[in-house]
Specification:
single chain; alpha/beta; TIM Barrel; two-stranded antiparallel ribbon; binds S-adenosylmethionine; binds iron/sulfur cluster
Amino acid sequence: MLTDQFQRTISYLRLSVTDRCDFRCVYCMAEDMTFLPRKDILSLEELGEIGAAFVELGGKKIRLTGGEPLIRKDLATLARALGALDGLEHLAITTNGSQLASCADALAAAGVRSLNISLDSLDPIKFKSITRTGDLTKVLAGINAAQAAGIENIRLNSVILQNYNLQDVEELIEFAIAKRLDIAFIEEMPLGSMPNSQREERWLSNETLMQELESRYRFQRPDALEDTAGPARYQKIVNTDTRIGFISPHSNNFCSSCNRIRVTVEGRLLLCLGNEHSLDLRAILRRPNYSRDTLKTAIIDALSLKPERHHFYDPEHPQILRFMSATGG
Ligand code: SAM
Ligand code: SF4
């Protein structure tokens, strides 16, 4: 088992398979993005090798993310290799859903058991204004295809912003209930430099959102939010199969139970979403005398770099210049 200096067990790897995306969501990317040159990104074999080393070290869960993971060519091949790893209990993907209609069956067959699908509005015009390039019809078709492929564990992810989609929350919840899906509301995090983005003006606290929702929905345990291993804290809506999750980096600190590490598509092992502590795994993978044992030792040693908590909102700490899409959300 991997354990860090604060006695947190690390069992969850978020593996970014691309920094590219077919969307340009306003909270995630700047309008004109520069992407990594091909030579700098890990091959599917290198990504698979990191996954295999992590699972040999006791890792139980891998989530493929990005950028938009489904635009990485031959992603299903990587998913199949990871899905076949002895000891891996949970293979998941976070996606914007735009390509799901054509690959949901292959991913389900590869062993993908759960999906987080981003959906910030059900109004096609608003959806376009948030994603800048997205087509809502394709995403809805993707959600249907994932359900038809038998992927049971699907959660919608919505970043709620004032003056953008705050009015869409109820419709999103009703959609989740009708589809028997969970939905998580995520507070926008200040990742990446976005001049004139009005990030502060549009930021909305989950505490405010939850107060509004409590007057409209009855929750099964209104006073006790359900804790899970991840950053989301859930409430179940009575008489439905839907749980509402709140991911609130600002209002509550989930760091004490953090069980995850991230690897960017250039092979940078990031110990925390909100800090720059990292190790270059690509340099290790590309050494002429590479062995999996060296990689495993490097991962174990790197855990001593894992900070106790994020510092997103601490003025004493520099802003994180990595975009969420480059980090692996
Ligand atoms: N492209 C995929 C998608 O959109 O689901 C996977 C990558 S995306 C970076 C992963 C998640 O991060 C999405 O749910 C997205 O809404 C969220 N996200 C992106 N930028 C964010 C930010 N600045 N603050 C909070 N969440 C963010
Ligand atoms: Fe692309 Fe996902 Fe970022 Fe939106 S949130 S720009 S879909 S990577």
